[in-house]
Amino acid sequence: MADTLSTGPVHYERDGEIAVLTLDNPPVNALAKEVRVALARHLEKVVNDDEVTAIVICGAGRNLCGGADIREFNTPARDVKPMSRDLVNLLEDCPKPMVALIHGPTLGGGLELALGCHYRVAKADAQIGLPEVQRGVIPGAGGTQRLPRLIGLEAALDMITTGVPVNGEKALELGIVDAIVSGLRTAVAFARQVIDDNRGPRRISAMKVAGDPDENATIIANYRTKLAKTSRGLLAPFHCLESVANAVTLPFDEGWEREAEISRMAMASAESRSLVHAFFAERQVAKIPDIPADIALRPINKAAIIGAGTMGGGIAMSFANAGIPVTVIEASQENLDNGMQRIQGNYDATRKRGRLSDDEMAARLGRITPSTDYADMADADIVIEAVFEEMDVKQSVFAEIDRLARDDAILATNTSTLDVDAIAQATKRPESVLGTHFFSPANVMTLLEVVRAEKTSQDVVASVMAMAKAINKVGVVVGVCDGFVGNRMLAPYFRQGDFLVEEGALPQDVDRVIEEYGFRMGPFRVSDLAGLDISWAIEKRRAETRPADERFSPLLDSICQLGRYGQKTGAGWYRYEDGRTALPDPVVEELIVARSREMDLNRRPIGDEEILQRCLYSMINEGAKILEEGLAIRASDIDVIWLNGYGFPRHRGGPMFYGDTVGLRAVCDTLDRCHREWGDKWQPAALLRQLANAGSSFAEWDKRKVG
Ligand code: NAI
Fold first, then answer.
1. What is the rounded CA–CA span in Å between residue 415 and residue 673?
2. Residue 326 contacts by C-beta under 8 Å, 6 or more apart in sequence?
3. Cα(629) to centroid of ligand 1, in Å?
């Protein structure tokens, strides 16, 4: 190509009479202000250049454009002119045909930019979408107005209200792109063909949304009904719907103006702030302040798991799914066979649902080697123990691992409650030992608490965090304590549920409030699903150390004594006639009322607000204690744990962020009231009180502590 000119993040080249503008702003060619300014400048130049007949816009590196620049979020840079939405109009106004070459992830503002072009060509594997709704906002650069005009109302609503991208082939089918190309050369050839065919610019803003107005009105009404079910408690999908509907009823310019207003409103919502917080929290979590980013990692290319039970099997599948060979070791052939059968059954279920091909299933199973010989752990880079939750069993297993594992191997325990320091002591190399707390089902759940014990070395922590990413988990570094971070905070949350029912609520009241808040299941339904026998066993163990004056509810005890262990026995806090649907049960209500009487409590109606506050604030308070004790690095790490391991509603940002949203003063005052009434367990954590008194927040605390 001749006539090359590079200015900043946009390059200009000529291929004969076709101008090629290349966005070059690593890593994803985001629409930073420098890119916007440079693109507008180049555009002016090519419009005035008589030798240029058409323009191709493409991206350097792996994609066309990843959308808005997240580094500009909440900064004045975002408003530097031309703003993205004006830039898209500038492209569309260009009197010469503009062709966008879409490749790689071309999302949000990236796709909107392409919609401003007159033609679009894409590589077959491009990812094309408008994911704004997932951050609580709407496409704000004309996307809600142009996409329905281009591909019709229903298809546009599907893409915009879910945010789910499509590939190039699907985009061709939908009419988003005009052709599939192999790269720039074919894109330029396409532009040349447009000129040869004398097709000229084709502006989407000049089109009308296809279909009969009445039919379109029905589609919108049906969509609203559907969203009321699928997006309960969310605002952004409805904002998207409203804006897309304007594309049907209003002229382009008016719809475009309204889009900006709706976009501003959405951006200011707590929902959007929470979702953006979740996004940043998940990026932040991998950074461990005292561990250098360039520390030499121990490569993890082969794993061994001891124990092929519920967890061992799921953990082995996580490695196999990620292409890492894994040996599973059991004490007896029978247990090993059972474990392998469960793994096979799991894969088979996925295959039957059409989500796994025969070949892929065989490849994954092929990566799992069953064994009853401990010596087979000798070539593993990491050995993960997932045997019974008993200290002496774990310690003797670790003594064996110490004897047989390679000198530089990482030794991990999947314990959920035991002291990792004590387990490490069973070896002569405690610096290589840490906890990997997977969540059940381990092949599905994304959370991995990486438990840094007293002597764990930095490179071991960093290597396991990298491993977490490699096996598609979100690793969060936590310290050693009973329950680590997630389960430790779960305990006071569940306890509040019990106390609320003793005082006047019923399990279904508590669950309803929590589910309306956004959790998929409230605490009682979750307990029934997990199995009450497990919590009962933990309660019995805790009873030995519980102070005599501490408030404690024996309701779980009473329910388990009736043989009601939850969903698996057909009854727990609820009864399950069809094995799945939780139905309120008069037997449970009787037990609860009898308990209130025994406590001399006058049952009273308990409002939804009180239920929500007591459940969530006690959880937040425990989180503050965890921060105080240095067992989590950041408040936002705690949010990541709850978002990925406990179904905390993402649009609320996580418990700590929610505390900030409500205001820590209010949280602290409510806890103080509970403290006066119910004693020490409710005392606000010192950190919480200190932040509340200073009018500060967990977010500010994070910033001060880790920057
Ligand atoms: P499980 O009872 O399903 O499996 C334990 C397996 O270990 C059994 O198959 C048993 O045969 C095997 N085993 C026992 N001693 C052994 C030895 N010396 N050598 C080799 N294999 C041996 O238990 P599960 O649920 O898989 O739990 C395993 C660990 O994971 C426990 O520490 C548990 O606390 C923890 N955990 C469990 C979670 C859950 O939801 N089930 C969640 C997170 C952690």
1. 36
2. 302, 303, 304, 305, 316, 319, 320, 367, 368, 369
3. 29
395 CB near ligand 1 (under 6 Å): no
Which among 268, 245, 267 has a CA at the least distance from the CA of 258?
245
Q: For residue 307, what is the domain's CATH number?
A: 3.40.50.720
Q: DSSP labels for 624-669?
A: HHHHHTTSBS-HHHHHHHHHHHS---GGGT-HHHHHHHH-HHHHHH
User: How far is it, in rounded angstroms, from Cα 500 to Cα 502?
Assistant: 5
pLDDT of residue 4: 52
For residues 72 and 221, membership in a common domain is answered with: yes
* Known catalytic residue at 132: yes
Does one domain contain both 443 and 505? Answer: no
Whether residue 401 is found in the same domain as residue 424: yes
Residue 17 near residue 51, CB atoms below 8 Å: yes
Name the token pair of 673. 């009231």
CA distance 473 to 444: 9
280 conformational bin, left if phi > 0, alpha if psi -120 to 50, beta if neither: alpha
Q: Which amino acid is at 642?
A: W
Q: Is 387 in the pocket of ligand 1 (CB under 6 A)?
A: yes
Q: Output the residue whose Cα is nearest ligand 1's atom 15.
A: 387
> What spatial distance separates the first Cα and last Cα of the chain, rounded to whole Å?
46
**Token pair recorded at residue 7:** 């200015």
Left (φ > 0), alpha (ψ -120 to 50) or beta: where does 138 sit? beta
Domain end, chosen from 266, 293, 311, is at 266
Q: Which residues contact 590 (CB under 8 A, 6 or more apart)?
A: none
Annotation says 112 is catalytic: yes
Cβ 447 under 6 angstroms from ligand 1 = no
Low-confidence ranges of the chain (pLDDT < 50): 1-3
444 alpha carbon – ligand 1 mean position (Å): 17
Contact assessment for residue 113 and residue 133, using Cβ atoms and an 8 Å cutoff: no
Place of tokens 């949350």: 493
Which residues are CB-neighbours of 229 under 8 A, at least 6 positions away?
Answer: none
Residues in Cβ contact with 215 at an 8 Å cutoff, skipping those fewer than 6 apart: none
Residue 296 lies in a domain: no
Q: How far is CA 77 from the centre of its chain?
A: 27
Residue nearest to atom 4 of ligand 1 (CA): 309
Same domain for 461 and 498, yes or no, is: no
Name the residue of 305, 310, 327 to mutate for ligand 1: max ligand atoms within 8 A of Cβ: 310
Residue nearest to atom 3 of ligand 1 (CA): 309
| Domain identity same for 498 and 428 | no
The amino acid that residue 118 corresponds to is H
pLDDT for 674 equals 85
Same domain, 128 and 236: yes
DSSP calls for 184-230 = HHHHHHHHHHHHHTT-----GGGS---S-HHHHHHHHHHHHHHHHHH
Ligand 1 center from residue 74 Cα (angstroms): 47
Annotated catalytic residue within 132, 271, 385, 400: 132
Rounded Cα distance between 568 and 408, Å, is: 43
What was the pLDDT predicted at 75?
84
Separation of 312 CA from ligand 1 center, angstroms? Answer: 7
Domain end position, chosen among 432, 454, 478: 478
Structural domains in the chain (count): 3
For residue 337, the surrounding DSSP H or E stretch is helix 333-352
Give the whole-angstrom CA distance, residue 432 versus residue 413. 11
Q: Which domain holds residue 154?
A: 2-266
Q: What is the pLDDT of residues 240-290, one digit of tens each?
A: 999 999 999 999 999 999 999 999 999 999 999 999 999 999 999 999 999
Between helix 33-48 and helix 84-93 the angle, nearest 10°, is 10
